[in-house]
Amino acid sequence: MTRVFITGASGLLGGALLRQFVQTDTEIWVLENNKPFLELNSVNVKAVGRAQLSNLPEFDVIFHLAARVGFGREIEKDIFESNVLLTKELCALPCKRFVYASSVSVYDSTPEIIFENSAICPTNPYAQSKYWGEYYVRQLSSYAILRFSSLFGEGMSLSTFLPRMILQAIENKKIILYGDGSRRQNYLHVDEAVQYLITASQTSLNIIGLGVESVSINNREAADIIEELCEVSIQYEGIDEDPSFEYNNEFTKQSIGFVSGSRNFKKDLLALYQWIKGL
User: Whole-angstrom Cα distance, residue 198 to residue 100?
Assistant: First the structure.
């Protein structure tokens, strides 16, 4: 039986990966935190605390997906503790393959298309901590580092752009976009991200790859989809000074043998709308 260890299993990405493995004949270990795990009633899931990390068996794969996200000096210590020190501890565990969820935020901001080997310039503590975590992972004999773009799907935090836009539509019957709505962002559905993780775990190639969608979406396109669902007005205000981002991860897909699913952004956004509406 394959034995895997998952951190961040109560989060969006880790939870989706956990649900995938629960349906298989896999021995699953998860790192406990203060959030409940709905799948812990499965006989194949074992939860351990951070203090127990030194007494664990060898794993076929460690999926390190836990991360502290945020901005501000008051949480910089937490970011360092969770994203750097925990990564260092996990890299000392016995395992055959280590898969690490990093972030596209480690790249330099540029109007050009970003590739796997584009310039690195992490500009905030979160991005810096993810890149620091990559350093420890790269010391291992078998690893995959996947730099993910903006993940979305049912169960996600409501503090990011897509959920905030949907909440505006539901509560205020209007959507406010800054600038002309042309800023492009890259959204990857969490289920697609899970397939990236699993595919990367099944190859022996050491890789630093991109987990992104092939096409970025501008804010106006996303708002138009929500407008079709309900009678809302789209209003434009001020200036949007944030940059647009475009990615090309053909190297990643070819290297690990990843085959993109038949996901449809409009359909996935509508599902997210229905989930938020039912909260």
Answer: 11
Q: What is the pLDDT of residues 36-77, one digit of tens each?
A: 555 555 567 899 999 999 999 999 999 999 998 877 776 788
Closest CA to 164 of 194, 185, 149, 148: 185
Segment 218-241 mean pLDDT: 93
DSSP single-letter state for residue 29: E
pLDDT per residue as tens digits for the range 124-150: 999 999 999 999 999 999 999 999 999
Decide: 110 and 244 in contact? Cβ < 8 Å: no
The DSSP string of 62-88 is: EEE-------SGGGHHHHHIIIIIHHH
**Regarding beta strands 184-185 and 217-218, do their DSSP bridges make them parallel or antiparallel, or are they unpaired?**
antiparallel
d(CA 110, CA 120): 11
- Helix, strand, or coil (residue 201): helix
